[in-house]
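From the thread on structure requests for the teaching lab: each student submitted one protein with a one-line request. Submission from student K.M.:

"Model Arabinose 5-phosphate isomerase from Kosakonia oryziphila, tokens only."
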Amino acid sequence: MSQIDLQPGFDFQQAGKDVLKIEREGLAQLDQYINHDFAQACEKMFYCSGKVVVMGMGKSGHIGRKMAATFASTGTPSFFVHPGEAAHGDLGMVSPQDVVIALSNSGESNEILALIPVLKRLKVSLICMTSRPESSMARAADIHLCVKVPKEACPLGLAPTSSTTAALVMGDALAVALLKARGFTAEDFALSHPGGALGRKLLLRVNDIMHIGDEIPHVRKTASLRDALLEITRKNLGMTVICDDLMKIEGIFTDGDLRRVFDMGGDVRNMGIADVMTPGGIRVRPNTLAVDALNLMQSRHITSVMVADGDQLLGVLHMHDLLRAGVV
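Reply posted by the TA:
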């Protein structure tokens, strides 16, 4: 393609808006294809004792990879197999217990059509997603999902645009319908995302990151304010718990409490911690999700919280611990 000059007054914004309009209109018509065939496809995948294997060539292959990834992360075990590679050995990855979803806008993908006799022989359930119910793939399928759109957003009608968007959305509809049917939870989702920020927020618990043992700042109720300040400085958590020898909580004293003591003009040198501590104090249980502890601390405008079983002190959690763990 030779370099040409930009047409005078060409409107990139309008060109982009035209694409959105065409694709919106295509998706609006997709609603009619969420029908009995869609429900049958969902049931087939729901009761699948193996895995959902997704196939597609070209742009359909890219959409298929995304579909398989979405299925896998929302409770439907799934993987993508390239049809070309499948014809050269990778079809051995497919078992009779699996369900195959094959994507092709025309429904005439030679690479997929070549695999169908083998899939039939293996008695693998076949769901085909095409725009043409009369196509070869549609006729060969156990279940056909139609994703027909009025036209492509490409003005030449050549580049897959509206059609791939429709296939992607149909894949999302399948995945989310199955997610709801399985009663899939946010914690289930986190189990397949342990390395990301979402996994940290949904799986990490307070007892995974709290300070324990000698790291806990604590003094007796008979301690002086000076002794309490030294303990706060040593443990560097901006607070100290006031408790007895058995670690039963009696109160808490924080940097913020110290500022209030100064504001009142108190004699810091002669005060006992019992005179200025906050009785009781906010606490969480050790199995509390770290993100819930974060929400509590933010709502109460505090930077640390005691971790306890009733009045029994088990640890201390600071906002910095949540930052280091990537929860914030």
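TA comment: The domain at 206-324 is CATH 3.10.580.10 (CBS-domain). Residues 18 and 278 are 63 Å apart (CA to CA).
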